[in-house]
Specification:
The chain is an alpha/beta fold. The chain folds into 2 domains: about 20-55 and about 65-190, Anaerobic Ribonucleotide-triphosphate Reductase Large Chain, CATH 3.20.70; about 215-440, Alpha-Beta Barrel (Anaerobic Ribonucleotide-triphosphate Reductase Large Chain), CATH 3.20.70. Helices cover about 45% and strands about 20% of the residues. Strand 3, helix 6 (about 125-140) and strand 4 form a beta-alpha-beta unit. The chain is globular and about 70 Å long. The termini are far apart.
Length: about 450
C-alpha cells in the first residue's frame, strides 16, 4: 500500500530540509596502469578513467530527475598515485596529476581523489616524490584532491611525515595565495584513513578494494535538525537519540536506493554507504544547528562535545539498520568553512581551536577546513597534526587535518571559497613553540592496544 504520510515526509525532507545524496563516487583501481614509462602510465590512466566513468554524470543526473533527489557531487577516487607512479624510470607526478585532472574534466565530475600516499610506517621513494610534488600539482589543477596517511593505530605516528606534511601544507597555500590558499583546502592529512571513503579531499581507492565500485555519501543535517525541533521539548536524551536513529534510517534508505540502482545502471558493483551528516553553507543545512535544536545556545557551548558524541552514535546506529554495506567515514562532520552555524560560532569566538580539537575525539573526521594565519610556523602546523593523529591513534578511529594557512591574512579576517567549500574566519592558534618536539623525528610507537591479534 502507498503511504501518503511517508511520501509527504520524504518530499519535505528534500524540499524543505536539504536532504540530498552528497556524493556518488566511482572508486577505480589503477593498478593495471603501471608502466616504466610515465607517458604510457598517463595514457593508461586517462583511457581507464574515461572508459569507466564516461556515463557517471549522465546517469546520475537521470536518477536525480527520476527520483527528484539531488545528487550534489559526482566524483572519482583512484588507487593512491604514489603506488602507480613509483614503477616509472622517469617519474613525473605533476604530469600524472594533470592527467587525472584532465580525465576528471572530460567526464564531467566535480572532483577526483587519490593523489595520495600511505606513509604511516615510513616512505618509499615513490611516496616521497609524490609528497614533494603535491603543492605544484594542486596549484596547477582544478579538480584534483590529495591526501596522505601519516598515522594508524597499528603503526603509530610517523613524525618525519608529519613535519614534512606541515611544510607541504604551507607551500600548497603559498602557491595558491591568490585564491586564499585553495591548494591547502584540497589536501588532508589522515590517521587511519579508510580506503572506501567517498568524501573529498580524502577519497582514494584502497589497495583492498575491487576493480571498480560505486560508493555513496548521504547527508541530511537539515532533516535531523527538523526532526529534533519537532520533538517535545521535555523529551529526555534517550528519546532524542532514538528520534535521530529513526531519521538516520530513512536518510540512509534513500542513499541505498539511489546507490544500488545507479551502480546497476553503470554495470559496476555497489560499494558502501557512508552515513555522514555532511553540512553545507546553506541556511538550515548545519550540524551546528542540530546542537542548537538539542538545547545548546550555540556550537561551542559546554556540552557541545557530548551532544556531538550522541549525534554521531545515533546516526551510525540508525543508518546501519538500513544497509549491510556501511563504510567510509560515517557519522557527523564539523568542517568550519562548510557549515553556516560553525562559521558563525567561529566568527563570534564561541568555537576556539582547542574546543574543535576536543570535538574531533568523537566526530567522523577531525580538524576540517579551518583557516589559520599564513605566518603560522610549519612546526606549529606539525604540532597540530600530531595532536590530531594522536586522538585517532589512541581511539582507533579516523582523524584528519585540513587546515589552510592563509597567506597575507590575519586573525578575524575572512576567506571565501564559494560552493561547498564555503567561507571562514581566520582563527588564532597557540603561539607556543612545538619545534623542539616535532623536530625530533622518528615514529611515535603504536599504543599497547594495537597488539590485539
Amino acid at each position: 500500500m502507498i503511504n501518503k504520510d511517508l511520501i509527504l515526509e520524504t518530499i519535505n525532507m528534500i524540499k524543505l530540509y536539504n536532504l540530498d545524496i552528497r556524493t556518488v563516487t566511482l572508486a577505480l583501481s589503477l593498478r593495471d596502469c603501471v608502466d616504466s614509462d610515465v607517458n604510457i602510465v598517463c595514457e593508461n590512466i586517462y583511457n581507464k578513467i574515461t572508459r569507466y566513468a564516461k556515463n557517471l554524470v549522465e546517469y546520475a543526473n537521470e536518477f536525480e530527475n527520476d527520483y527528484s533527489i539531488p545528487i550534489v557531487n559526482k566524483r572519482i577516487s583512484v588507487t593512491p598515485i604514489s603506488i602507480i607512479g613509483e614503477g616509472c624510470k622517469n617519474p613525473d607526478y605533476v604530469k600524472i596529476a594533470k592527467t587525472l585532472d584532465k580525465a576528471a574534466k572530460d567526464v564531467g565530475v566535480n572532483f577526483i581523489g587519490g593523489f595520495s600516499a600511505l606513509v604511516e610506517k615510513g616512505m618509499t621513494k615513490g611516496d616521497e616524490l609524490l609528497i614533494e610534488s603535491i603543492p605544484e600539482a594542486l596549484s596547477q589543477t582544478e579538480r584534483l584532491c590529495s591526501s596522505v596517511n601519516v598515522a594508524s593505530s597499528k603503526a603509530g605516528i610517523n613524525m618525519d611525515a608529519v613535519l614534512k606534511m606541515a611544510g607541504i601544507i604551507k607551500k600548497s597555500a603559498e602557491l595558491t595565495k591568490d585564491r586564499d590558499g585553495l591548494g591547502a583546502a584540497k589536501l588532508v592529512v589522515f590517521c587511519n584513513s579508510p580506503g572506501d571513503n567517498p568524501f573529498m579531499a580524502g577519497a582514494f581507492c584502497g589497495v583492498g578494494e575491487p576493480e571498480c565500485a560505486l560508493n555513496v555519501g548521504v547527508s541530511g543535517p537539515g532533516v535531523v535538525r527538523a526532526a529534533v525541533e519537532a520533538l517535545d521539548k521535555k523529551a529526555d536524551l534517550g528519546e532524542l537519540s532514538n528520534k535521530i536513529k529513526h531519521i538516520a534510517y530513512k536518510i540512509t534508505t534513500t542513499g541505498e536506493l539511489v546507490g544500488r540502482k545507479l551502480a546497476a545502471r553503470l554495470g559496476v558493483p555497489f560499494g558502501v554507504i557512508d552515513l555522514s551528516l555532511a553540512p553545507t553553507p546553506a541556511v538550515g543545512d548545519s550540524v551546528a544547528g542540530i546542537f542548537q535544536a538539542m538545547g545548546l545556545e550555540h556550537a561551542g557551548a559546554h556540552g557541545t562535545t557530548a551532544a556531538l558524541a550522541m549525534l554521531n552514535d545515533a546516526v551510525k546506529k540508525g543508518g546501519i539498520m538500513a544497509s549491510s554495506y556501511v563504510g567510509g567515514l560515517s557519522g557527523a562532520f564539523i568542517p568550519v568553512s562548510e557549515d553556516a552555524g560553525m562559521i558563525e560560532a567561529a566568527a563570534k569566538g564561541y568555537l576556539t581551536f582547542d574546543k574543535l580539537e576536543a570535538m574531533t575525539s568523537v566526530c567522523s573526521v577531525g580538524l576540517d577546513m579551518i583557516a589559520i594565519p599564513g605566518d603560522t610556523p610549519a612546526e606549529t602546523v606539525a604540532g597540530i597534526i600530531a595532536d590530531e593523529m594522536a586522538i585517532g591513534m589512541i581511539n582507533k578511529k579516523t582523524t584528519a587535518v585540513r587546515i589552510i594557512p592563509v597567506v597575507g591574512k590575519n586573525i578575524g579576517e575572512e576567506v571565501i571559497y564559494g560552493g561547498l567549500l564555503g567561507q571562514a574566519p581566520v582563527m588564532p592558534v597557540n603561539n607556543l613553540s612545538s619545534a623542539g618536539f616535532v623536530c625530533r623525528g622518528g615514529r611515535i610507537p603504536a599504543p599497547i592496544h594495537s597488539l590485539n591479534n
